[in-house]
Amino acid sequence: MIWIAGRQVNPLMLQAEWGLNDVQQEIVHRMAASRVVFEYASADVLRFELKLRDHLVKSARALYMSGIAFSDFEHSRSNPEFWEQTELGGFRLRPGIPPSRGIIDIFQNGRLYATECATAMVIILYHAVLKSIREADFERLFADMILYDWRYDQDLDLQTLPTNTFLPGDILYFANPDYDPSKPQWQGENAVFLGGGLYYGHGAGIRTAPSMIAFLNENRKPGAMRSAYLVSQATRPGFAYLAPFDNMRGNISYVDHRGAFPDILEAGVRIKAEIGSFYWEG
Q1: Which of 61, 159, 199, 254 has its Cβ near the most Cβ atoms within 10 Å?
Q2: What is the pLDDT along the chain (282 residues), one digit of tens a residue?
Q3: What does UniProt give as the signal peptide span (predicted)?
């Protein structure tokens, strides 16, 4: 269910009034059909979430088409014009390079890069956020960028939540408990849910869930009895936290308002949109 400012909303109304594209239509229909209640303080926050989720899907597809290679950290590589290689196989933004330029170069010159699936997910997140918020805010929020595994800037406000309600733009995880120890890179696969039953995992490509599971099962140890599976969790950026920086809005003042994150549970528990460490005033 979807609630805005204390009132339940029909997804067909949003579809008609907001001109939603196919990905965004799937998002609101999945929200409306779920037992989870998605609650927003204002329509602007939901509208921003739909935009950012759409960019997450587009960024995942763009990274897939960029030519970036799959590798472990030992064999990772990047464009030395923009990035320095760390000892652990990560990428550190060179001094004086704006974060936006470093991220855009990965998509424009993907064949110069190689990394594993977790770092690829963070790259997708940064690219989608760049497409959704004001560039000046992106440069300020994500200065001194390092790309390595699940290391990310706190201003992404990432949260991994237990849920079976998967929405396009969610980052999911396919676990492979009986993976072949000689192929540790296939102990699981991080994947962006693209909608329409498709998922993008760096190294595995764009696949359906059964195909992703079959791919991982091919990389199990001899005699394995347990199948790979899709974990009941989703990793999401702080949509409400990032919404004040929306590139379709003017400058908005905000004040620090540190507080606990609400728990996200199934059946009758509402999801609050005030996610993150700041409270804003428009």
Answers
A1: 199
A2: 999 999 999 999 999 999 999 999 999 999 999 999 999 999 999 999 999 999 999 999 999 999 999 999 999 999 999 999 999 999 999 999 999 999 999 999 999 999 999 999 999 999 999 999 999 999 999 998 999 999 999 999 999 999 999 999 999 999 999 999 999 999 999 999 999 999 999 999 999 999 999 999 999 999 999 999 999 999 999 999 999 999 987 654 433 333 333 333 333 333 333 333 332 333
A3: none
Q: Are 100 and 143 in contact (CB under 8 A)?
A: no
Could you state, in order of their start, the residue ranges of all structural domains in the chain?
2-245
Query: Which of helix, strand or coil describes residue 260?
Result: coil
Quote the pTM value: 0.87
